[in-house]
Design goal:
Nucleotide Exchange Factor Grpe, Chain A, domain 2; mainly alpha; 3-stranded antiparallel β-sheet; 264 residues
């Protein structure tokens, strides 16, 4: 600092206060904060052994009761959760079944149109068949887009009650029993659900031939002929008696009429 600056500082200092004009250092203020902790005085209480055991028993019983209530609540929650999951599964399954039944019912209503296409194609000439086949192919593509298709059936296939409906059976020894001999109407299925069973005619075993009658012994033949002759004779006698009785009755009626005429 220059001498002029020192002189100015001396003039500003009040009398009676000495100041060191050397290096002026500002001492930082430090505050010690002390927390007073008030300590409470606890007095020890005396518990007898019986009271301690009783209190311990009560606490154990309370813990067991709370544990039991906790387990009951947990079991109830798990039971309700299982019921909810089962109900949700049943609801989803029922909804899926209803959708399948509704779709199958709608597809079944169009089966008469399929039958008409088949009959028209079978009875049409070549030009008409080409036109009808185009419509038939479009119709079948719509069916296949929904997952519906005809049930495959062939002649001589074994009868399957889950796919076929037997209208009648015919005796046939050339093929195994319950073999399909004729297809009356095609069947249809939607996925695994059968919309219409295939109507067929199946085979059955022919009846065994009747055994030939064994020749009768001569004695039985004679007895039979004798018995037949006796029966014939008895029939003739009865007829004669009947005719004689009729003749007598007729004669009696005639005589009675003549008598009545005379009396009148």
């Amino acid at each position: 600092m220059t001498e002029d600056n020192n002189d100015e500082i001396k003039e500003e200092i009040k009398p009676g206060i000495s100041v060191d004009t050397g290096n002026i250092e500002a001492e930082p203020e430090s505050k010690d904060i002390k927390m007073l902790e008030e300590k409470e005085h606890y007095e020890l209480e005396y518990f007898s052994k019986e009271e301690y055991e009783k209190e311990l028993t009560d606490l154990k019983a309370k813990v067991e009761q709370l544990q039991k209530e906790s387990n009951d609540s947990k079991n109830k929650y798990m039971h309700l959760q299982a019921e909810f999951e089962n109900a949700q599964k049943r609801w989803n399954k029922n909804r899926q079944n209803l959708r399948i039944e509704y779709t199958a019912s709608v597809l079944k209503n169009f089966l008469p149109l399929y039958d008409s296409f088949k009959k028209a194609i079978d009875s049409a000439n070549e030009t008409e068949k080409n036109v009808l086949n185009n419509f038939y192919t479009q119709f079948m593509n719509v069916y296949k887009s929904y997952g519906a298709e005809p049930i495959p059936v062939k002649i001589n296939d074994s009868f399957d009650y889950s796919k076929h409906e037997a209208l009648s059976s015919i005796e046939n020894g050339d093929v195994p029993e319950n073999s399909i001999l004729e297809i009356i109407q095609d069947g249809f299925k939607y996925g695994k659900v059968v919309i219409r069973y295939a109507k067929v005619i199946i085979s059955k075993k022919p009846k065994p031939p009747e055994p030939e009658p064994e020749p009768e012994p001569e004695e039985k033949k004679v007895e039979k002929e004798t018995y037949e002759e006796q029966v014939k004779e008895e029939d003739i006698i009865k007829q004669d008696e009947t005719e004689t009785k009729k003749h007598k009755d007729k004669k009696h009626k005639k005589h009675k009429k003549e008598k009545d005429k005379r009396s009148s």
